[in-house]
């Protein structure tokens, strides 16, 4: 993208975020630094999809105009949650933004046909099978795919081995590698946009994350980085899974998500805020990880939720080292990579 266009994009996003179409809410009963979501998470674990839909319908309903931004602040005016409506058009323009979304979703669907995602088994307190059986008709469709992919770098606490590629990066058949590269190239176009928006929300954290990636790359090469100063090391795609109550624990302060696909309903709910947000393709959310409980209300259609973030232990281990390549100018959007 030409330098003068970058300047206009930056000015447009700044004006949109600070002046135009904003909703800003203060939650004076919340101190995000001391917020413990454990009790709320336990209370919501046993709810069915019908229960979550009923609960979400009692929350304050938030619908943003295209180009609008919602911000939730705690008692100290720290950001808890930020939602950008029509973020793709904001950063890439209407036509290119639509193309970026379509390419990513097409590549996810193509990859899932040759290597289906696996069901998560990380929560012994949550009966995923029971939830899935509530939609038995879809499960009986041979073309239906359901599960989670996690691509990137992880750094296990207490391990002396340093950062390593996730299992979905290393334990895949050789015949899938070309499709995986193509898929991650298209996801990289979205990561560029998310990186830019993270800089609008919290430029200090983006800088620290970029520094952590630079340092981690000295131990394990980030194989599908699509911009010079990548700031995310984990890409998680949740494919057609019920939006069960969850806390983004073990991750850095901000987790940046976006829904892809073709579906109706499926609002994003934040329990501590008691708000239900209209959340469709084109929207980008930034959630303060580890501090709030989120869930997705039931939807109809095909849906993938794509989250970009970083392992908190990797961040702590590498972000405070002296950086040799100061990425202060990183994060501007560029023309999307061509991937089909």
Give the secondary structure arrangement, pairings included:
Elements: H1 3-18, E1 22-26, H2 38-44, H3 49-58, E2 60-62, E3 69-73, E4 79-84, H4 87-92, H5 94-114, H6 128-132, H7 136-139, E5 147-154, E6 164-165, H8 167-170, H9 177-201, H10 203-216, E7 234-239, E8 254-265, E9 268-270, E10 275-277, E11 284-288, E12 294-296, E13 299-309, H11 312-318
Parallel strand pairs: 1-3, 2-10
Antiparallel strand pairs: 3-4, 4-11, 5-6, 5-7, 7-13, 8-11, 8-13, 9-10, 9-12
Helix pairs in contact: 5-9, 9-10, 10-11
Which tags fit this structure?
single chain; 340 residues; alpha+beta; Double-stranded beta-helix; nine-stranded mixed sheet; four-stranded mixed sheet; 13 strands; globular
Task: Report on this structure.
With 340 residues, this protein is of the alpha+beta class. The chain has one domain (3-318): 4-Layer Sandwich (Double-stranded beta-helix), CATH 3.60.130. Helix content is 35%, strand content 21%. It has 11 helices and 13 strands. The protein has helices spanning 3-18, 38-44, 49-58, 87-92, 94-114, 128-132, 136-139, 167-170, 177-201, 203-216, 312-318; strands at 22-26, 60-62, 69-73, 79-84, 147-154, 164-165, 234-239, 254-265, 268-270, 275-277, 284-288, 294-296, 299-309. Helix 5 (94-114) packs across helix 9. The radius of gyration is 19 Å and the shape is globular.
